[in-house]
Each structure stands twice: as C-alpha cells, then as structure tokens.
Write a structure and sequence with these properties.
By secondary structure, the chain is mainly alpha-helical. Helix content is about 80%, strand content about 0%.
Length: about 170
C-alpha cells in the first residue's frame, strides 16, 4: 500500500465523514433530538459520561468527532485501496465505493449495539442509514473522478511517450 493511496483514502473518508456528520446533526436537530445528539452518542460509546441528549458538551463533542473521523478515514482508505485496483472495472470500483459504507452501516448495527446499546437505540435508524448512504455517494463520486483523472493522465503520458518515439 503506498502513501498516496493512504492520503487519498483519508481525504475521501474525511469528506464523506463530514457530509455524514452534517446530515446527522441537522436531521436529528430537525426531529427534536438535538443538534449535538449524534456526536454525543458516538462519544458515549467510549465515555459513559457523555450526555445522551442533543446538548453541547465540549469533551463529548471532541471525542465524538475524533472517533467518527478516524472511522470515516479508515473506511476511505479501504475504499481507495479496493477501488483503485487496476483489475477492477469502473462499475466494480463504484460498487466498492458504495458497498463499503453500507457494509459499515450493517456492521455498525451489530457492533454498536454490543458496545453501547443505550446510545445506539437513541440514534434514529433512518437518519443513520441515510448518513451512510450519503457517505457512499461521496465515495462513488470521488472514485469516478479519480479514475477519470488516472485514465487522462495515463493517456496523456502515452501520447507524450509515443510522440517522443516518433521524433527519434
């Protein structure tokens, strides 16, 4: 695994994670659970002193965001590694980009319930699912753009290489 893929994956994960976090915070505020509820629920999984409501708590906010972004960036790296394989088609790469966040959602339902059933039960299920779906859409878009850039760079390199040999 090369450093470039790790950085791209971390950036992809950060972008997808931010979209997911913004969606979840706005959606849970709109449903009456409170703007900071998603971050508090995540923080509560590690620190039982984190509130289980939508109120602001600085420690819970930092802890929740750090945990969420670390997991998001890890998923991003997994997506870039899986989707950038040369043997995989663009359709296959997009499927990886969508499949990883949706598999994470399914796995999270089981794992989070085992880790902290109180916090998990308070996170509105459809909001959590749509958040993962939005992450998947960001990842799929990122993957298509990255593959087009790679194809353009490869074609451009081939054209320059062929032109150099034609002049020799």
């Amino acid at each position: 695994m090369n450093q470039r893929k790790i950085i791209q994956g971390a950036l992809l994960g950060a972008a997808g994670g931010m979209v997911m976090a913004m969606w979840s915070m706005i959606a849970l505020a709109a449903t009456g659970d409170g703007f900071f509820a998603p971050v508090n629920f995540i923080a509560h999984s590690l620190w039982r002193g984190a509130p289980l409501d939508g109120g602001f708590n600085a420690a819970a906010f930092v802890l929740g965001i750090v945990i969420h972004m670390m997991v998001s960036m890890t998923l991003g790296v997994m997506i870039v590694i899986g989707a950038s394989r040369r043997s995989i088609s663009t359709t296959g790469a997009v499927a990886v980009s969508i499949g990883v966040p949706l598999a994470a959602w399914a796995g999270q339902l089981v794992a989070w319930n085992a880790i902290d059933p109180d916090a998990r039960s308070l996170f509105t299920p459809w909001v959590l699912f749509v958040g993962h779906l939005l992450f998947a859409m960001v990842a799929a878009g990122w993957t298509v753009i990255a593959r087009r850039q790679t194809a353009t760079a490869t074609a451009s390199g081939s054209l320059h290489h062929n032109a150099d040999h034609a002049h020799a």
